[in-house]
Amino acid sequence: MDWNLPTAGQQAAALRAGEVTSEELTDEAIARIERHDDAINAICVPDFDRARAAARGADRARARGEERPLLGIPVTVKESYDIAGLPTTWGMPPYRDFVPAEDAVQVSRLRAAGAVVLGKTNVPLGLQDVQTFNDIYGTTNNPWDHRRTSGGSSGGSAAALASGFGALSIGSDLAGSLRTPAHFCGIYAHKPTLGLAASRGMVVPPGPALPVEQDFAVVGPMARTARDLTLLLDVMAGPDPLTHGRAYHLTLPPARHERLRDFRVLVLDEHPLVPTGSAVRAGVHRVADALADGGARVERYSPLLPDLAEAAVLYTKFLFSGSVARFPIETYEQLQARAAGLSPDDESLDAARLRGMVLSHRDFIGLNNSRELHRHGWRQFFTEFDAVVCPITPTPAFPHDHTPDLMKRRIDIDGADHPYFDQLVWAGLATMPGLPATAVPASRSPEGLPVGVQLIGPMHEDRTPLRLAELLEPRIGGFRAPQEAGG
Q1: The CATH number of the domain where 56 resides is what?
Q2: Which of 23, 198, 309, 457 qualifies as a cystine partner to 240, CB 3.0-4.6 A?
Q3: How many structural domains comprise the chain?
Q4: CA distance 111 to 70
Q5: Of the residues 177, 199, 443, 445, which is catalytic?
Q6: DSSP string, 58-95
Q7: 278 catalytic per annotation
Q8: Quick check: 62 and 15 in contact, CB under 8 A?
Q9: Between the CA of residue 97 and those of 91, 94, 381, what are the distances in Å?
Q10: Is residue 111 part of a domain?
């Protein structure tokens, strides 16, 4: 049997039943990577010798009667996580030789749960792109169409999972970096509630691995099935033992419902600031139909929904405010001059990006007050609804575009050009207020490319969108390997 494409849950059951060993699973995963990754370029830092040793250790532990959540399961880790003895570069050439001395907290949790780490997956330069390529490790291709991107910034992890290189992976998300690659590659991912999973050791090199609380960014699980997301989230979730973990332990509430017919869901397929492409719209409709067929209450409008345009502008300003921290002072002053020349009436996303890059602390406080009002609006919304179904980006995976100036790139939405970063507004819908969001495969485009949607749930109720994803899976098909689909 080919053990590379079964889920982590299936692999764990086979290990418990003695049908396979961790050493066999690991050897098969390594062999598959060596056969196929030249064309994909997902695994940028292999760690095969230590993986084989860890697999042998897992088999010995099981023989002693040990049981751990991921005991013996081969996994991958996004390159941006520190792993002792391996380079952490974030794709930035000046740090190609930086090797941390200790594991990130999430890597430690994987190892404690018994996982076998195969290696690290590729990322874009500084994690700041919707694609995955850099001058150290090259370009990661979409397994469905090598001419297209796998997404970013967790594009290497998504491509690895779609290709059968390990059963699970861990990534991160600030601007859709878990959800967009999942959507482009046809897998599952979950952006947890802000602060739910500790991120120490996922830090720009060569910075020290400090337990810093992030303002928007989260770390989260990626998998080939919804149930595996929950399995991995349970390993990842919880406060940092150096800070909040000294005082409390995390207990996630159960999903609001166990049956599809008990869910109340708002479906969105239009945004006031950017159009939704026909392929993505079709994916949203397919999920909406599956929900309705399962008896869920499906609505298309609610006056409780926070204003989408205002949310997008707020998110854009926040997102780009952190992008200029290392800019030369001369460049920053030029941006300030350009922002000062904007019309006060210009509320476009282009204007929001420019204003965000020169945001003052005074303006930041004002924005943060607006964010808290949005969070309160979402609390009210989720008294009437359990989840929102909406796009992740307006299009399926697009062709590689390595134009150096990201501001000059364009995204094609049904034949019309739009600013490249406009595609981030749907990701920001969950990121700005810190809500959990689960990316699920929904359909295929006319070209055969995967199309995913996101299920956004209430804050700190991550099990609600995860359970909804699990209930939808048999109705919308879930993961299919590119080879099986003729990709």
Answers
A1: 3.90.1300.10
A2: 198
A3: 1
A4: 9
A5: 177
A6: HHHHHHTT---TTTT-EEEEETTS--TTS---TT-GGG
A7: no
A8: yes
A9: 11, 8, 48
A10: yes
In a domain, 336, yes or no: no
Give the whole-angstrom CA distance, residue 272 versus residue 279: 18
Tokens for 57? 């250790």
CB 471 within 8 A of CB 386: no
Is 129 inside a domain boundary? Answer: yes
C-alpha atoms less than 13 angstroms from C-alpha of 244 in its C-beta half-sphere: 16
How far the first Cα of the chain sits from its last, in Å, is: 22
Is 78 one of the annotated active-site residues of the chain? Answer: yes
DSSP conformational letter for 4: S
Domain with 193, as residue range(s), is 8-256
Q: Which helix (H) or strand (E) holds 458?
A: none
Question: Would you write out the chain's pLDDT as a tens digit for each of its 487 residues?
Answer: 899 999 999 999 999 999 999 999 999 999 999 999 999 999 999 999 999 999 999 999 999 999 999 999 999 999 999 999 999 999 999 999 999 999 999 999 999 999 999 999 999 999 999 999 999 999 999 999 999 999 999 999 999 999 999 999 999 999 999 999 999 999 999 999 999 999 999 999 998 999 998 999 999 999 999 999 999 999 999 999 999 999 999 999 999 999 999 999 999 999 999 999 999 999 999 999 999 999 999 999 999 999 999 999 999 999 999 888 778 899 989 999 999 999 999 989 999 999 999 999 999 999 999 999 999 999 999 999 999 999 999 999 999 999 999 999 999 999 999 999 999 999 999 999 999 999 999 999 999 999 999 999 999 999 999 999 999 999 999 999 997 443 3
DSSP letters spanning 13-52: HHHHHTSS-HHHHHHHHHHHHHHHHHHH--EEEE-HHHHH
Catalytic residue, chosen from 22, 80, 153, 199, is 153
For residue 278, tell me if it sits in a domain.
no
Residue located via tokens 């907290």: 105
